[in-house]
Amino acid sequence: MIGQAGAPAIVDQAQERKTKMSQDKATYEGMFLLDAGNPDFQAASEPVRTILDRNEVTTLAIKLWDERRLAYEVKGRRRGLYVLSFFESDPLRIAEIERDCRLDERVLRVLLLRREGLTEEQIQAETPASSGAHRAVERREDEPDADAADLPDLADVDVEIEAVAEDLADEEEAGDDN
């Protein structure tokens, strides 16, 4: 009897909570670091889309930020694909999104930030990958450094240092004689 009488109240509370959650949506910016092994952006960004869809967010934009050599190895990877996303979500879902990212082996790292007052212009702004900006060429260790041609030969520098040291020694001796 108690279960039957209490059941409508539980359903009403759940419906009220769901309505409240949809009213409390906030805008978020997410930076996802993925394995750079797949050259096709649509296929490579699939883990991000899957995680966001699973958590019932409203996706505003998902775009390639850049592909870069990582400063240090992350989960055995040397290169990473950065995917920038903007979405609206219930703040209570953010912990679930972060958990899904930790469980998905294709997502190396994630950073989610709440963004108040984000404009459409900011969401649609160009990224380093889309702007065509020239990136510094990442050199392999066996390639010569392009700037090395502008540097003097170290042997010549050593000779100049020795000559200056001899001149200083001669000046000191001449000063001591006076």
Question: In words, what does this structure look like?
Answer:
- The structure is a single chain.
- With 178 residues, the chain is α+β, with helices and mostly antiparallel strands.
- The chain folds into 2 domains: 2-131, 2-Layer Sandwich (Alpha-Beta Plaits); 146-177.
- Helix content is 43%, strand content 27%.
- It has 7 helices and 4 strands.
- It has helices at 2-23, 41-44, 46-54, 94-103, 120-123, 128-131, 154-177, and strands at residues 26-35, 58-74, 77-89, 107-114.
- It has a 4-stranded antiparallel beta sheet with strand order 2-3-1-4.
- A hairpin with a 2-residue loop joins strand 2 (58-74) and strand 3 (77-89).
- It starts with a helix and ends with a helix.
Provide a short characterization of the protein structure.
With 178 residues, the chain is an alpha+beta fold. The protein contains seven helices and four strands, in the order H-E-H-H-E-E-H-E-H-H-H.
Q: How many beta strands in the DSSP annotation?
A: 4
CATH architecture of the largest domain: 2-Layer Sandwich
The total number of structural domains is 2
Distance between the termini: 117 Å
Biggest sheet features: 4 strands, antiparallel
The class by helix and strand makeup works out as alpha+beta
Number of helices: 7
